[in-house]
Write a structure and sequence with these properties.
Blueprint (H helix, E strand, L loop, with lengths): L6 E8 L4 E11 L5 E9 L5 E7 L2 H17 L3 E2 L14
Pfam families: WGR
Protein name: WGR domain-containing protein
C-alpha cells in the first residue's frame, strides 16, 4: 500500500439547473489485506450513496480510481483543492 492514500473530492454546481452535487473517491487498505476503492455521491449538504469495491493490489485500485475520476470530470465535476482551497480558483496577479 502506498504511503499516501488516494483521495479526491469533486463537485458539480449549475444554478440554472438547480444542481449542486458532490462525488468523492478514496483508496484505503482493508483489514484483510485488500485494497478498497470507496465512492460517495449525492447532493451537497445531503447524505448520498456509497459503494466500496475491493482489489487484490494497489495498481488495480489506482487504475479504477483514475478511470472513475476521468468519467466524472467529463461530466463536469471539478476537484476541490487541498486545505479547503478551490482547485479551480484563479491565481492572484
Amino acid at each position: 500500500m502506498s504511503l499516501y492514500p488516494y483521495q479526491l473530492y469533486s463537485r458539480r454546481i449549475d444554478a440554472d439547473q438547480n444542481m449542486a452535487r458532490y462525488y468523492s473517491l478514496s483508496i484505503q487498505a482493508t483489514l484483510f489485506g485488500e485494497i478498497a476503492v470507496t465512492r460517495r455521491w449525492g447532493r451537497i449538504g445531503v447524505r448520498g450513496g456509497e459503494m466500496t469495491e475491493t482489489f487484490a493490489c494497489e495498481r488495480q485500485a489506482a487504475i479504477h480510481f483514475l478511470d472513475l475520476a476521468r468519467k466524472k470530470h467529463r461530466k463536469g465535476y471539478r476537484p476541490i483543492g487541498n486545505c479547503g482551497d478551490d482547485a479551480d480558483k484563479q491565481p492572484r496577479a
